[in-house]
Design brief:
About 9% of the residues have low confidence. It contains ten helices and eight strands. 47% of the residues lie in helices and 13% in strands. The longest helix has 42 residues. The strands form two sheets. It has a six-stranded mixed sheet with strand order 2-3-4-5-7-6, with helices on both faces. It has a two-stranded antiparallel sheet with strand order 1-8. α2 packs antiparallel against α6 and α8 crosses α10. It is α/β, with parallel strands linked by helices. β3 and β4 form a beta hairpin. The radius of gyration is 24 Å and the shape is globular.
């Protein structure tokens, strides 16, 4: 059986910020959109990542990448690592604000663009077992249960069949829910989004160009330094979040101890707290070390570079990878 190589690539978020905005690399993003939307998408232009803030106290619509297709449709792609309870509202706000901001006063309503909101999230958003969700607007008869269609003139004007086709569509890719088994070409893209790796036997549109453009080894020395610096900043943010959770747990234990003392459980609870904190801190330190090394390894960073980032020896890093991947 022919050996299948798995090539380490840079992370998709960094690629969107630094490489995929270049016209020569549009093929990569077009391939991803073709696989997700299941139709041909040709990119006309890619807008700068910006917040669209119009007032000092306005909410920020953080858009990672804004794609204008030659079909006069707009695709907003946002990638989010950290959980937000209000993320569903953030999706709605981002699309609504784009439509409002890009429609000039006095414009006819037929100038409103069709918008696709694609959200790549690395946290557990909502409750659901799937890893790709699609949200659309349907107008369905309460009595007849038929879907409202456009009139003939409207179909010719908008090149759509149903009224709901004019409204925004939402895609949510819950990357961490993916089981790493690629059953189709869209799964091949999600495998890359999750692992920063592309198998040589993958055939999804855009991945062949991605192998050439997004390989860590193909970056310039300056790009490698910039990528490693950003990766280290992300690792530090992860560490800060983990520390905040640990601090919260300790405060919870202290509060529990106080309540226990009031109930006459002072001795037993103090002993349990001491053991719990000691054990929790030990697990937390080990978990953080493993996560730092694992994130760097998945991003295709060589072991010597990981050693520089983490202040660990090559042998320690190798041992951590063996323990995690065994």
């Amino acid at each position: 059986m022919k050996e299948v190589k798995i090539r380490s690539m840079i992370s998709f978020d960094w690629a969107m910020k630094r490489l995929l905005r270049q016209k020569a690399n549009y093929e990569v993003l077009e391939g991803f959109l073709n696989e997700l939307l299941r139709r041909k998408v040709v990119i006309k232009s890619i807008g700068e990542s910006a917040s669209n803030k119009t007032k000092k106290n306005d909410k920020s619509n953080s858009v990672d990448i804004l794609v204008e297709a030659d079909s006069k449709e707009i695709v907003i792609i946002e990638l989010q690592f950290y959980g937000q309870d209000d993320y569903f509202k953030r999706m709605l706000y981002g699309v609504s604000k784009f439509i409002a901001d890009y429609m000039h006063k006095g414009d006819a309503y037929d100038t409103v663009r069709k918008v696709y909101s694609i959200n790549i999230v690395y946290f557990d958003l909502g409750v659901g077992r799937d890893y790709v969700y699609h949200g659309i607007t349907n107008f369905t008869g309460l009595h007849t249960h038929d879907e409202l269609q456009l009139a003939e003139k409207q179909r010719a004007l908008y090149e759509k069949e149903f009224a709901g086709d004019l409204y925004p569509e939402y895609y949510i890719l819950k990357v961490n829910n993916f089981d790493d088994v690629a059953k189709d070409t869209l799964d091949e893209w999600i495998y890359y989004l999750k692992n920063n790796k592309i198998r040589d036997d993958f055939t999804a549109q855009g991945l062949e160009q991605a192998r050439k453009t997004l390989a860590y080894d193909n970056l310039s020395e300056e790009e490698k330094r910039e990528y490693e610096r950003e990766l280290k900043d992300r690792i530090n943010r992860d560490s800060e979040i983990n520390t905040a959770f640990t601090d919260g747990e300790i405060k919870g234990l202290k509060k529990g101890r106080a309540e226990g003392e009031a109930k006459g459980l002072k001795k037993g609870l103090k002993k349990g707290e001491a053991i719990g904190i000691e054990k929790g801190e030990a697990i937390g330190i080990e978990k953080e070390r493993i996560q730092v090394v694992l994130n760097s390894h998945r991003a295709g960073i060589p072991v010597p570079t990981i050693a520089t980032i983490t202040n660990l020896s090559n042998e320690q890093i190798t041992e951590i990878l063996k323990r995690v991947e065994s």
